[in-house]
Amino acid sequence: MNLINECKGAKTIAVSGHVRPDGDCVGSTTAMYRYLKKVFPDARVDLYLEKPAAIFDCLADVKDVKDETDPSTTYDEKYDLFVALDCSTTDRLGNAAQLFDKAAKRVVIDHHISNNGIGDVWEIRPDASSTCEILFDLMEEQYFDEELAKSLYIGIIHDCGVFQYSNTGAHTLEAAAKLIGYGFDFASLIDETFYEKTYLQNQIMGRALLESILFMNGRCIVSSVDRKTMEFYGANPKDLDGIVNQLRLTKGVDVAIFMYETATQEFKVSMRSSDAVDVAAIATFFGGGGHKKAAGCTMNGSFHDVVNNLSGHIAKQLGME
Fold first, then answer.
1. From CA 145, how far away is CA 165, in angstroms rounded?
2. Which strands sit side by side in the sheet containing 66-67, from one edge to the other?
3. pLDDT tens digit string along 6-40?
4. 87 contacts: CB under 8 Å, gap ≥ 6
């Protein structure tokens, strides 16, 4: 994709990413927002996103986010161009999907293997560590500055687990090295946005780990947090970040499942896996998506219903039917 050519001529541009934005989503959308404002100074560029977690306040452009958390919000404007980032299906755009559907042209940039090519023009690279790594390739470096580089770097480190996950490639490290050259404090950025937890987050993670259950001969682990527990701690979904990754570090485990209750008999499910299981295929079956080793979906039923439904698919891939 020639990004500048695809965006040329648009006088009004909307940029957005998926609901419950993670580091790659926040990084890619703020980077794109800043980039388009620099390349097309006469265009109006708007950034729509659910309010990012406070850890991302270190990014200058977060302050310009048009918070679309209220599900009752309706949009009537027709943008010349809508750029959707890190999002494999239109329903994951949340309220901004209304703007996506109305836009004269829709450009999609993503790295999820479950993305079948939504929009009018797309760049989908499942082998990339992150959407931010793709943007690093698509953006002209003459428009880079410290803040844009910081956004791209945050997206990369969050989606590749600070270069620990298997989606880290040589090009990932090359991109990160060039971005560090723009002078931001990358060490503090890693600590403050990836590793550092609040006291509340540590408490609820500790409870989730304490109440976790091993099954399938120790090859799977699952934990859950219900709404009552979240209310007790005064927690929100952003406070649950990192729990599924910690579960996955349990010795002997091939698949980690973490879920939290979003409504009566409804759970948001996150899965992490080893090479033995493709959790993206499982998540896609249940209407979600993601990557081979990291995926998620929303499922209905009781905790045991959800575990039982997932177990059949996991067992099949592990040859334990």
1. 27
2. 66-67, 44-49, 12-16, 81-85, 105-110, 121-124
3. 999 999 999 999 998 999 999 999 999 999 999 99
4. 16, 17, 18, 25, 93, 108, 110, 112, 115, 118
Residue 202 has pLDDT above 90, yes or no: yes
Amino acid identity, position 20:
R
Quick: pLDDT tens for 218-238: 999 999 999 999 999 999 998
What distance, in Å, lies between the first and last C-alpha atoms of the chain? 44
Can you read off the two tokens belonging to residue 154? 């945050």
Mean pLDDT confidence for 131-139: 98
**Helix (H), strand (E) at residue 221:** strand 220-225
Q: What type of residue is 231?
A: E
DSSP result, 278-295: -HHHHHHHTT-EE-SSEE
What is the amino acid identity at position 69? T
Pick from 92, 119, 149, 171: which is nearest to 1 by CA?
119
Q: Which helix (H) or strand (E) holds 152?
A: helix 146-159
List domains and CATH numbers for the chain. 3-195 (3.90.1640.10), 200-318 (3.10.310.30)
Radius of gyration of the chain from Cα atoms?
A: 19
Among 122, 121, 111, 164, CA closest to 280: 111
Q: Assign 115 a pLDDT band (cuts: 50, 70, 90).
A: confident
